[in-house]
Design goal:
By secondary structure, the chain is of the alpha/beta class. It folds into two domains: about 1-15 and about 255-370, D-serine dehydratase-like domain (Lyase, Ornithine Decarboxylase, Chain A, domain 1); about 40-240, TIM Barrel (Alpha-Beta Barrel). The chain is built from twelve helices and 18 strands. It has helices at about 20-40, 50-60, 70-80, 95-105, 115-130, 155-165, 185-210, 220-225, 245-250, 285, 330-335, 350-355, and strands at about 1-5, 15-20, 40, 65-70, 85-90, 110-115, 135-140, 170-175, 215-220, 235, 260-270, 275-280, 305, 315-320, 325-330, 340-345, 360-365, 365-370.
């Protein structure tokens, strides 16, 4: 859908999710070129934006493989011509049939595993249906959300069982350094990135000593791929948030605020200079309640408040209810923004914020010029 509307046009109902197309294009080009110049494979994550338009920006004209976080995403992107997909969430037994059906329609469908229980389910499924699953073993590199302990005998036994199973083809080792988000600056991010790659390299080498060779090392949170000038110690990277970035990434030093490509357009619905606050119509259902980098700045609030040109304002969004956002500031600052004023809030977590909107307003040269429709559901 194309259009050409001012951000103050009442046809744009607030709250609205705004995407600065030129910034997304630049973010995508920088990461794609970094992967190419580093000589590592590039399998970007599409879960942040969930749109065909941005996935194509991520890959460039040559195309390539992608990473997804839901089977709905996998099916959607497969229907739009993406035929090499990694589903980077541990697969549950009830989804085996759906994953196998999709795998039969595209060139490659990789799935994730970190337990003997799912391996047994795959072997039972394969015995009934003859389907061989392409799998990555999920490895814990310190985040402790999922994955096998690479130093444990249990992790080694599962890896060897996968390598020897007739029901699966073990493609490689996959990890996610989600704990990089708790870093206090670039040097800590770089250290987490070194741990992320070294964990997989050590595990791969232990497996090679047992005769299991040719495994791919798949890594790459947005912080650990954005921070270094050159990537090493990995075979492919899977960043996703970098397409949009957000206030959190800026807060830990991974990007500049000007690289944050998305914001929530909101309208002032209450102005109370005597109490030092505004109300806007962007609450938790428009911004999420994800905290910012409060381990660095305890006063960071729920996003960065800006004017319509994305200049930062001396205001702080400190409270969220379902449909209300409470913005605090000095009385004289609050008085500058009467009811009806529109402002933009750069969210703390762009992935989750984007998921709250049925469509995105695409901004070109300061105007809302198009709408993009993301895939939804699981």
């Amino acid at each position: 859908m194309t259009m050409n509307l001012s951000l103050t046009d009442p046809e744009i109902t607030t709250p609205a999710f705004l995407v600065e197309e030129a910034v997304v294009q630049q973010n995508c080009a920088i990461m794609r070129e970094k992967a190419r110049n580093s000589g590592v494979g590039f399998r970007p994550h599409v879960k942040t934006h969930k749109t065909v338009e941005i996935a194509r920006m991520q890959l460039g004209p040559e195309g390539g493989p992608i990473t997804v976080s839901t089977l709905a995403e996998a099916e959607f992107f497969a229907a739009h011509g993406f035929d090499d997909i990694t589903y980077a969430v541990p697969l549950s037994p009830d989804k085996l049939g759906r994953a196998a059906a999709l795998a039969s329609r595209i060139q490659r469908m990789n799935v994730l595993i970190d337990s003997f229980a799912v391996l047994r389910a795959m072997e039972e499924f394969a015995a009934l249906h003859g389907h061989v699953f392409h799998v990555f073993l999920k490895v814990d590199c310190g985040y402790h959300r999922a994955g096998v302990d690479p130093e444990s005998e249990e992790g080694m036994r599962l890896a060897l069982a996968l390598a020897g199973s007739q029901a699966v083809r073990l493609e490689g080792l996959l990890t996610h350094a989600g704990h990089s988000y708790y870093a206090r600056g670039i040097q800590e991010v770089l250290q987490v990135g070194r741990e992320e790659t070294s964990v997989l390299t050590r595990f791969r080498d232990r497996l090679a000593a047992q005769g299991v060779t040719g495994l791919l090392r798949s890594t790459g949170s947005t912080p650990t791929t954005s921070a270094p000038e050159r990537l090493s110690g990995t075979d492919e990277i899977r960043p996703g948030n970098y397409t949009f970035y957000d206030a959190f990434q800026s807060g830990i030093g991974v990007c500049r605020l000007s690289q944050c490509a998305v914001s929530v357009l909101s309208t002032v619905i209450g102005s109370y200079p005597q109490h030092g606050h505004l109300l806007v119509d962007a609450g938790a259902l428009a911004l999420s309640k994800d905290a910012g980098p409060d381990h660095i700045d305890s006063n960071c609030g729920f996003g960065v408040v800006c004017d319509l040109s994305l200049n930062r304002l001396p205001l702080n969004i400190k409270g969220l209810s379902q449909e209300h956002g409470k913005i605090e500031g000095a009385p004289e600052a609050i008085a500058r923004f009467p009811i009806g004023t529109r402002m933009r809030i750069i969210p703390n977590h762009s992935c989750l914020t984007a998921a709250l909107f049925p469509h995105y307003q695409v901004v070109r040269n300061g105007m809302a010029a198009a709408q993009w429709e993301p895939v939804r559901g699981w």
